[in-house]
Structure formats: structure tokens, C-alpha cells
Amino acid sequence: MSSDFFYSHRDIFMEYVEKELNINGLKPNKGHMSLVELEKMGILKAVITQNIDDLHQVSGSKNVLELHGSLKRWYCLSCGKTGDKNFSCECGGIVRPDVTLYGENLNQFVVNEAIYQLEQADTLIVAGTSLTVYPAAYYLRYFRGKNLIIINDMDTQYDGEASLVIKDNFSYVMDKAVECLKNSNMEKH
Questions:
Q1: Hey, what domains does the chain have and what are their CATH numbers?
Q2: Which residues contact 96 (CB under 8 A, 6 or more apart)?
Q3: Taking the C-alpha atoms of 47, 67, 131 and 162 in order, what is their torsion angle to the nearest 10 degrees?
Q4: What DSSP assignment string belongs to 139-170?
Q5: pLDDT, tens digit, for every residue of 25-51?
Q6: Sequence-separated (6 or more) residues with CB below 8 Å from residue 47
Q7: Are strands 69-76 and 82-83 parallel, antiparallel or unpaired?
Q8: How far apart are CA 143 and CA 12, in angstroms?
Q9: Residues tagged active-site
Q10: How does the average pLDDT of the chain come out, rounded?
Q11: DSSP single-letter state for residue 101
Q12: What percentage of the chain exceeds 70 in pLDDT?
């Protein structure tokens, strides 16, 4: 959906958000939980996501950079006050979800932090994305580390540049990887 559509057809836009983008009842999967475990182990420094469902935060991830925003946050276009999906602003302004619509720029603070994290990383795990959505796919060029790992059930344009490509379900792969890491850490102690 575009920002033009939002401003021209707010009722249809809100109906679409309610029916098609309803995140109520969604629960984190093993992939989300595995990232939390990696963060607790000190291995994972940040999650950079295009998802707008807030599941990384629900699962317990602390440093989540949401390139496209979140449907959990809404804000008033007039005064900037924030709230959840059901809030209406006392100033009478239009309330919308804090997501990037087509035709809008990404949040520059989030972009800058994502670029910083990519530049600092020695390993980058790219998962569950076709790497065709721009500008997010473009940010891979900021990664200067040694290990680019792509976990996806389809080919991507970056597979040839990766240190490791795993063609499988991200949740399954990450659950097994964390299990192996925990077992190897237990053997060391």
C-alpha cells in the first residue's frame, strides 16, 4: 500500500490492515527463539528485519532494527502522540500505523543503526528473504565481515557471494544450530 492510497482511501486502507495484516494471535517460532538464545550467548548483536509483526520483540530479542516499522505502534499525524492500534488522539488528528508505506522513506535513524551494525559484524546471517526488496537488499554492501550465511528455501542473487548457503527452513536450521552451540559449550565446561 502506498502513502497516497492511505491519504486518499483511509477507510479501505484500515480495512486492509485489519483483515490482511492482522498480527493478533501471531506467535514467535523456533527461529525467533533461536535468535534470542544467540543474543543471550553474546553471539548475536542485532536483528535487522523487514517484518512489521513485532515477533522478534515478543520473543525477547533486545536490539531489533525494524526497517519497515511495526504494526504494534501507531501515531498521530498532527501531534505525533503514539499509542496502540486502537488509540484515537485527543487532538483529533489522523492516526496511522508506524510502518513504511510505498513512496515513503525508511526511518533514517534505523537505517543508520542497521548500516553501523552491518559494518561491525564479522558474521551476517540473512534468512527468510529473497533479497529482492530494496532498499533493504542494498544494505548487504555494508557488510565487511568474513562470513555471509544465507538460510533460505529459495535461491537469492547473493548466493554466489555467501560463505555458506543453506536451502532449508530458517526455524529448523537455527533451532539445530543453537542446539549444537549449546552442546559444544557444555562440553567445554
A1: 3-188 (3.40.50.1220)
A2: 6, 74, 75, 77
A3: -30
A4: GGGG--SSEEEEE-SS--TTGGG-SEEE-S-H
A5: 899 999 999 999 999 999 999 999 999
A6: 35, 56, 61, 63, 64, 65
A7: antiparallel
A8: 40
A9: 68
A10: 93
A11: P
A12: 98
DSSP state of 137: G
Residue 189, pLDDT > 70, answer: no
C-beta of residue 96 within 8 angstroms of C-beta of residue 81: no
pTM as predicted: 0.90
d(CA 50, CA 56): 11
> What kind and span of H or E run contains 27?
none
Which of 135-139, 141-145, 152-156 is predicted with the least confidence, judged by mean pLDDT?
135-139
- Read off the amino acid at residue 179: E
Tell me how long the chain is.
189
Minimal CA–CA distance to 136: which of 65, 62, 54?
65
CA 143 to chain centre: 17
For residue range 133-142, what is the model confidence (pLDDT) as tens digits?
Answer: 887 788 999 9
Number of separate helices (H) and strands (E) present in the chain? 6, 8
Beta strands in the chain (DSSP E): 47-49, 64-66, 69-76, 82-83, 95-99, 123-127, 147-151, 164-166
Cell, residue 75? 501515531
- Asked if pLDDT for residue 22 goes beyond 90, the answer is no
